[in-house]
Amino acid sequence: MWQAKKKLIVQQLNKKLSESLLTVVHINTMQATFLRTFPNAGLRLGNVSMLSGKDFNAKDFSGQDQPLLNADLVTIEISLPDLMRKKVNFKNIAISNATINVYVDRQGVYNTNIWKPSSTSAQKETHVDFENIALRNCSINYQNLLTSHSAQATISKSKNALYVNNDSIFVKANVSMVLKRAAYKSLQYNKPLEIEISSSISIGDRDLVMQPLLLTINKMPFIIAGNINNYKSKPYLNVTCQVKIADLKMLAETLPDSLLAKVNNKATRGKLIIDGTAQGDISNGKLPYINAQVRLYDAKCKLTKGPKFNNLEITANYTNGMQRNAEFSEVNIDNASFDINDSQVVASGQITNFSHPYLNVKLAMDANLHDLSEHLANKLVSFQQGHLKGEFLLKGGLQQPLTAKLFAGLIKKGELLATNVQLKHVMAGTIDCDTLYAVFSDACTIKKLNFRALDANVQATGTLLAYKNLFAESPRLDFDGNINASYVDFYKWLSAFSYYDTSQQVKADTAKRLYYSINTNCSIDQLAIDEFNMTYFKAQVIINPLEIILNNSSFNACQGEVFAGGMLRFNNSQVEFLRTQADIKPGCKLVF
After folding, report:
1. CB-based contact 276:293 (threshold 8 Å)
2. Integer Cα distance of 103 and 52 in angstroms
3. pLDDT at 317 over 90
4. Around Cβ 161, how many Cβ atoms within 10 Å?
5. Chosen domain end from 177, 204, 231
6. Is the pLDDT of residue 589 over 50?
7. CA 206 – CA 229 distance, rounded (Å)
8. Beta-strand (E) ranges in 166-233?
């Protein structure tokens, strides 16, 4: 009789599998028991292999059929009362020493599509309870050829429950696993993550409800709860998430090796709290509406080849959605403050992205520039030493990608508000003037600027341009150094200066005009200055071979040294005091 029962179990099991599955299951050995599992029948299946679903294209992978499951041992419990009525309902299942492959071919077909659709009333009324689904020492491989995503994990132990009744499913999971590697398109992650999962999920006819899920990654807790409703035949997501990280050092240790190499995690610390919600239609790959608040405090970070950040605090929030029939995302920085080496930085503002990202940030700095030069500004200006203190209002469109160039593309159209800017020995190097032109366009203004530069040497490799109304209020500029440019065109940019004292050298080999600038040691064809008013003027001007023209200008004091083969012309200008002490070459004329 016992042997007959065994035979019946095997027959009913094979029949049930063939009726329900769109794949083939190979079972090498099978043992049945009643004693340990009563009132259930127990089956021990050895060397079990389950092939992928028949619609899955295994040739995309290795040219051979990829098994969905290979297991040394599968233990199944089946209800004996149901079995006596020739019904097979699985109660408990345990899989040990197994490899589970979840694959997606190039057409987006999963190899897990193995279940036949319910076609009979008997199948629809099937009642299946997995009171315990246990995985022990199982390796899981995931690869999606359509999206270039992949992952590999090992589950050391899990104790889960699955209850299925007609159209409702309830899942309770407790999983311990190690994620060994993962890839998202071109991004690679190849370091182990210890993951603990505890949650329960109920799936009904029209919604999915997830009770608070406790997810722990390398001892960092994540709490997620929410539901998905089938609203008007479209899946609608409503999820809340909370992340609390007591020590940023743990977060730094989870970074990919390429990023971790840039961060000294031993010198990194801090606390991070993230609260977020996501809700909205997620059909056809749509992103839900997201609102996230981030708070980082009591933090510090040391880059391996870069500055050290202390007293780091950030309070910000992120939102996305639809506005004016266009998708947008927005980051609001309520507070960001830190000390970079010994320099203080405070910022607040907003970054908005409709079709192009836009920046609006107020920045206060008290910075030693030589501490920042190697990491922030070496692409545009090589700061050797100096100090920058003031408030800046940065506005404008952001170019992609955002490079390390100082303000490159950052203030293409906008306003730079600065107070008490002091620079010393700071501009020895090369300015990419074509980039500078993109930074300060005619829509930019600089207000309340006090600028001082000593021993500054600027090599301009492109066209050096400045525009009308660049300075909206009377700034003060003291400049001592040299400027070399292939083409110089200053247009009304120094008209508001009340004081200017310089011994700068400007060499513009191919320049045709030089407007509104006091330039010394110039070698140009013509220097034309219009409507220039200055209380003090000291200049040493070399004009070769044409002329310098001062139109509608006034000077309270003017001391000039002129070396010219051309003409020095004052048109409709008022000069209270003019003294020239120079060897005026033959052919040079002073015209009033």
Report:
1. yes
2. 9
3. yes
4. 16
5. 204
6. no
7. 6
8. 168-184, 187-189, 193-203, 207-217, 220-231
Please report, for residues 45, 249, 442, the alpha-carbon distance to residue 518 in angstroms, rounded to integers and kept in the order given: 92, 54, 21
Q: Do 45 and 143 fall into the same domain?
A: yes
Q: Which domain holds residue 308?
A: 206-355
Examine the domain organization and report whether 227 and 197 are in the same domain: no
Residue 274: φ, ψ to 5°: -130, 125
CB 542 within 8 A of CB 505: no
The domain boundary residue, chosen from 189, 204, 219: 204
Answer whether 457's CB lies under 8 Å from 427's CB. Answer: yes
Per the document, the length of the chain is 592
Q: CA-to-CA distance for 83 and 434, rounded, in angstroms? A: 82
Query: How many other CB atoms sit within 10 Å of the CB of residue 220?
Result: 18
Distance between CA atoms of residues 396 and 380, nearest Å: 19
The verdict on 170 and 239 lying in the same domain is no
Within a domain: 276: yes
Q: Which of 417, 470, 474, 461 is nearest to 440 (CA)?
A: 470
Angle at the Cα of 152 from the Cα atoms of 148 and 155, rounded to 5 degrees: 150
Residues 161 and 215 in one domain: no
Residues contacting 477, CB < 8 A, separation 6+: 449, 451, 452, 494, 497, 499, 500
pLDDT at 564: 45
DSSP type of residue 546: S
> What's the whole-model pTM score?
0.56
433 domain residue, yes or no: no
The token pair that represents 263 in the structure block? 């961060």
Indicate whether 174 and 282 sit together in one domain. Answer: no
From the CB of residue 415, how many other CB atoms can be counted at a distance below 10 Å?
A: 17
| Domains of the chain: total | 2
How far is residue 284 from each of residues 94, 119, 233, 255, measured CA to CA in Å? Answer: 36, 28, 12, 31
Give the model's confidence band at 218: pLDDT under 50 very low, under 70 low, under 90 confident, else very high: confident
The answer to whether the bond into 401 is cis (omega within 30° of 0) is: yes
**Is 323 part of any domain?**
yes
**In the structure, what pLDDT confidence band is assigned to residue 332 with cuts at 50, 70 and 90?**
very high
- CA angle, 428 then 431 then 433, to 5°: 155
Q: 433 or 561: which carries more pLDDT confidence? A: 561
Among the ranges given (168-177, 244-253, 483-492), the one the predictor scored with the smallest mean pLDDT: 483-492
SS3 of residue 19 by DSSP:
helix
Joined together, the tokens standing for residue 29 give 């050995």
* Co-location of 150 and 33 in the same domain: yes
Same domain, residue pair 183 and 252: no
In this structure, is residue 435 part of a structural domain? no
Q: What is the DSSP annotation of 382-413? A: ---S-EEEEEEEEEEEPPSS--SSTTTTTTSS
**Which CA distances in Å does 219 have to 181, 197, 240, 242, 588?**
18, 11, 20, 15, 82
Cβ neighbors of 63 (< 8 A, separation 6 or more) are none
Q: Are 195 and 210 contained in the same domain? A: no
DSSP state of 58: G
